[in-house]
């Protein structure tokens, strides 16, 4: 096991009275891809959103337990939530580019962080679009609207936009569920590449996807982490009977 970049310990999440995540423990390995799988409504997205305090935006949502990022409790008093969401970026199910040019989508975050020099911004635009495997497709139309891109290109742009503010961890909530198989394969290749420089946690409904791209997998059911381990072990030798049934497609 490499270094642990995030640690989730005894985490419970409620929406009002609804107990959505129950006593979950999970380490997140640096430069790895960690997948969260499980039937609809089992709490995968809730757990993911608690990992960069996205749940703070939902009325009545309460998180208990400890979530540390590089040893610091992200829920500790005085924590800069914007800093947490910069260091731990998020990619959503539906690509959500801003209604502005491709270039401006990428430079938006760095500008907020005080970078104004055109040459520096140009460098960030090219670097992140290359990292997101989109540069060759858009380098001649950086000033055109991002909304004119295909869904798959928009999702890669959202990944480039997340990279532009130098995150450490990238959380992805079913990033390919709105995409066709070719666009999905490109994002999967990209995720495999990204782990050289970043750490990725991905929620997926697609077990084959978890198997293809992740190093560790957590299987959740009714808010509980039923089993967590190396992806190969989870899929080839699950220790828990419920995990075994789920990956065989017996239920869920
Ligand atoms: N904003 C909310 N308010 C109240 N309950 C919620 C809210 N969001 C989710 N829930 C409930 O919390 C539980 C976990 O939902 P969550 O979306 O985390 O599951 P999931 O495993 O990601 O599901 P899916 O795969 O369908 O996205 C569900 O019972 C859901 O109905």
TrEMBL record:
<keyword id="KW-0547">Nucleotide-binding</keyword>
<feature type="domain" description="ABC transporter">
    <location>
        <begin position="6"/>
        <end position="247"/>
    </location>
</feature>
<dbReference type="InterPro" id="IPR003593">
    <property type="entry name" value="AAA+_ATPase"/>
</dbReference>
<dbReference type="InterPro" id="IPR027417">
    <property type="entry name" value="P-loop_NTPase"/>
</dbReference>
<dbReference type="GO" id="GO:0005315">
    <property type="term" value="F:phosphate transmembrane transporter activity"/>
</dbReference>
<dbReference type="InterPro" id="IPR003439">
    <property type="entry name" value="ABC_transporter-like_ATP-bd"/>
</dbReference>
<dbReference type="GO" id="GO:0016020">
    <property type="term" value="C:membrane"/>
</dbReference>
<dbReference type="Pfam" id="PF00005">
    <property type="entry name" value="ABC_tran"/>
</dbReference>
<dbReference type="GO" id="GO:0035435">
    <property type="term" value="P:phosphate ion transmembrane transport"/>
</dbReference>
<protein>
    <submittedName>
        <fullName>Phosphate transport ATP-binding protein PstB</fullName>
    </submittedName>
</protein>
<dbReference type="GO" id="GO:0005524">
    <property type="term" value="F:ATP binding"/>
</dbReference>
<dbReference type="InterPro" id="IPR005670">
    <property type="entry name" value="PstB-like"/>
</dbReference>
<keyword id="KW-0813">Transport</keyword>
<dbReference type="GO" id="GO:0016887">
    <property type="term" value="F:ATP hydrolysis activity"/>
</dbReference>
<keyword id="KW-0067">ATP-binding</keyword>
<dbReference type="InterPro" id="IPR017871">
    <property type="entry name" value="ABC_transporter-like_CS"/>
</dbReference>
